[in-house]
Inverse folding.
């Protein structure tokens, strides 16, 4: 069976799948996970990725009658998708790794697509997840940090330098707390799961308390928690309104750890956004549907898109 290798490289772990194509959905034939081994340094991480991909290729050949036709890989940090270079990752410690070339060489010359992790996850959410069929969407995962993927007509905009969608570094509270990016008062400092955890730990006096605990306390009506939560929601709404004023998305997909709070987040968030807009059209604000598989599913889509592109450009009418 014709299939591709989909690989999602995170900070600590890698998720992989062999994915078959069938219309809009990408059924996964085989799934595997393993650690990146980042404590052994960036060269070992790259070696680990190449080994993992080669094993997946062998698995496909053995179980599905043919080796994978292409590979899609999602990686964190700064990614030059055009040139297939993993440009920078603080987490994995690498700089300018020519990952596409290395994988092509290791896997016998098959096509390789490289994508940014959040944009790749956004591609999957937009095409087969919560934004299914939306021609214009914005995907915003609220995790350790906040990033974004701008979906336009079936693809995700990377920007001129690979930085498009960095909504977490929109300044929502000028002069506010310093952000590792060098600015002050970034959205990420108020509305990421990490920021809410920090604020709630300080407010309730339990250093172990996190954002999920805060959401539970909100649901049970704790006024202290409601105050902390509303500050995050207000900051998030300020950032999102800036984004929707610029982009006019049809669907706004919110994912990541904080979105797991469900209506505890979505009800006040929809209200806060509605209160702020004047002339702007309200997008549909929905929770992400694919959870932590979005990066892997997106990597599979990148690989199939690359094969489509090769078919279209190589076959003469
Ligand atoms: Zn920042």
């Amino acid at each position: 069976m014709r299939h591709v290798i989909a690989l999602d490289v995170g900070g600590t772990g890698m998720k992989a799948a062999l994915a078959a194509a069938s219309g809009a959905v990408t059924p996964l034939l085989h799934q595997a996970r393993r650690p990146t081994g980042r404590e052994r340094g960036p060269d070992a991480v790259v070696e680990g990725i190449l080994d993992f991909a080669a094993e997946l290729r062998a698995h496909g050949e053995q179980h599905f009658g043919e080796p994978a036709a292409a590979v899609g890989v999602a990686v964190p940090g700064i990614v030059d998708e055009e040139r297939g270079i993993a440009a920078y990752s603080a987490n994995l410690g690498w700089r300018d790794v020519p990952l596409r070339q290395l994988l092509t060489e290791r896997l016998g010359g098959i096509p390789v697509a490289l994508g940014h992790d959040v944009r790749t996850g956004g591609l999957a959410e937009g095409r087969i997840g919560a934004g299914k069929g939306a021609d214009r969407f914005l995907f915003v995962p609220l995790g350790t940090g906040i990033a974004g993927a701008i979906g336009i007509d079936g693809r995700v905009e990377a920007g001129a330098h690979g930085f498009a969608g960095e909504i977490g570094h929109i300044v929502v509270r000028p002069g506010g707390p310093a952000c590792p990016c060098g600015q002050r008062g970034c959205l990420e400092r108020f509305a990421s799961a990490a920021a809410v955890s920090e604020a709630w730990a300080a407010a309730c006096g339990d250093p172990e308390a996190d954002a999920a605990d805060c959401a539970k306390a909100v649901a049970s009506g704790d006024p202290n928690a409601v105050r902390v939560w509303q500050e995050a929601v207000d900051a998030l709404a300020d950032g999102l309104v800036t984004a929707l004023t610029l982009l006019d998305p049809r669907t706004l997909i919110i994912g990541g750890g904080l979105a797991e709070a469900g209506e505890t987040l979505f009800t006040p968030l929809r209200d806060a956004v509605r209160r702020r807009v004047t002339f702007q059209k309200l997008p549909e604000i929905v929770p992400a549907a694919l959870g932590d598989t979005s990066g892997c599913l997106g990597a599979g889509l990148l690989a199939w898109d690359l094969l489509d592109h090769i078919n279209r450009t190589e076959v003469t009418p």
About this structure: Residues 169, 179, 181, 183, 186, 188 surround zinc ion (CB under 6 Å).
